[in-house]
Amino acid sequence: MTADPRGGSAPAENIGSTPRIDAPAVWTPRTTDGPVPRPGDITGVPHPGWMDPLLSACTDGSFDGLLPKRRPPEDRGAGEVGRPHRDAAVLVLFSGSPDATGPRPPRDARVLLTHRAPTLRSHSGQVSFPGGGVDDTDSGPVETALRESWEETGLDPDGVDVLAVLPELYIPVSNYSVAPVIGYWREPMEVDVVDPGETSRVMTVPVDELLDPANRFLLRHTTGWTGPAFGHDDLVVWGFTAGILAAMFHSAGWDLDWDTSDIRDLEKTLEASGNGERHRMSAEEARREHADPLADRTVAGVPGVRSGHGDDDDDAVAGATDTGAAADADPSGYDGSAPDDSDSEAPGPGGSAAGAPPGEEPLDLPADNPRRGYR
Questions:
Q1: Model confidence at 348, in pLDDT bands (50, 70, 90)?
Q2: Hey, how many other C-beta atoms are within 10 angstroms of the C-beta on 234?
Q3: How many CB atoms lie within 10 A of CB 136?
Q4: d(Cα 160, Cα 5) in Å, to the nearest integer?
Q5: pTM for the predicted model, two decimal places
Q6: Within the chain, what is the greatest distance between any pair of CA atoms?
Q7: Which helix (H) or strand (E) holds 94?
Q8: Phi and psi at residue 354, in whole multiples of 5°?
Q9: Where are the beta strands (DSSP E) in 146-305?
């Protein structure tokens, strides 16, 4: 076990062999001479040539074109699920040879990921980019992404070159707008678990491993929700994180041919994995993702594949037998109406809350309910 600069530990094999640079013990915002980068900004900071295709894809619309089209409420207020809108940011941090010219990533290219503790109330056991909600004291999404990465992994922000802040991606089921911040790890260091109660593992995953066709597949919920996934050791990377990676890899031209017909059951695959996810995507969440009238059925980063069961999506979903899914559930017809505050608690044993199909919990739940949160 290796100690982290602010306490906690993680298996050394998850860290890599990069030299250690002690991270600061107290968070200090970085100062910049120019304007604070905002969503949609490219910073112009020098970067390795192999990252050129990725930065180009993020500026010419190729990356955005591979994602479902969604937008937050115009007033940025409470969404359909009754949860206040909030901005968030994640750090998509790549390392790799500074001298490699590309266009493909070098063999030593890696990306920073975390495995969230299975005991958490929200997103338990998920593999994700470091990141979180924007605090009032943050200057913008860059500071949020770097601060959260420092809090979760001990990352020293001085070793990171911020290359771009991508346009916000809206997550309907939580009413979050998430800005991915692309960074180049100019001075890699050992990173580690800071708080074992929040993070189970910190990993620098080889990009070549994620691109390996043997580690790629699709996950599908019985309601029809479909998304890309990656295998890493005993873990499954899926949801928002996998969608961002898949869209980046494809738009940058880094993809290798992989079997997009390899579609696996979401619940069974997670159950067999080492993720330890206590609260996986419920039928209610999948239904809202699948039926969102502001979104198309694009599967992030996988052109030509649509979310659903095929041409007869509604009939297939109507016959879904997943635990808690109503036999007559129709994702295109379910209105997702939010109950009032008095009906917002989860139903008791055998009960059904207002606004949700029989046997389903609504997403309009108390803030501390583990079903709340964005994917």
A1: very low
A2: 10
A3: 4
A4: 17
A5: 0.75
A6: 61
A7: strand 86-95
A8: -65, 145
A9: 160-165, 169-171, 176-185, 199-206, 216-220, 226-232, 235-237, 263-265
pLDDT of residue 41: 80
Q: Which of 185, 114, 117, 171 is nearest to 148 (CA)?
A: 114
- Over residues 311-323, the mean pLDDT reads 39
Q: Where are the domains of the chain?
A: 2-281
Averaged pLDDT, 160-184: 89
CATH class name, domain 2-281: alpha beta
Number of neighbours of residue 330 by Cβ within 10 angstroms:
16
Can you name the residues that pair with 183 across neighbouring β-strands?
Answer: 93, 162
Tell the residue number behind the tokens 């290798």, with chain if given.
256
Most confident of 92-96, 117-121, 287-291: 92-96
Two structure tokens written together for 332: 């295109």
Contacts of 261 (CB under 8 A, 6+ apart): none
- How open is the CA angle 181-184-190, to the nearest 5 degrees? 105
Q: What is the pLDDT of residue 175?
A: 81
Structural tokens at position 324: 């808690």
Q: In whole angstroms, what separates CA 256 from the centre of its chain? A: 22
Nearest to 1 by CA among 147, 277, 202: 202
Element (H, E) at 128: strand 127-128
3-state secondary structure of 265: strand
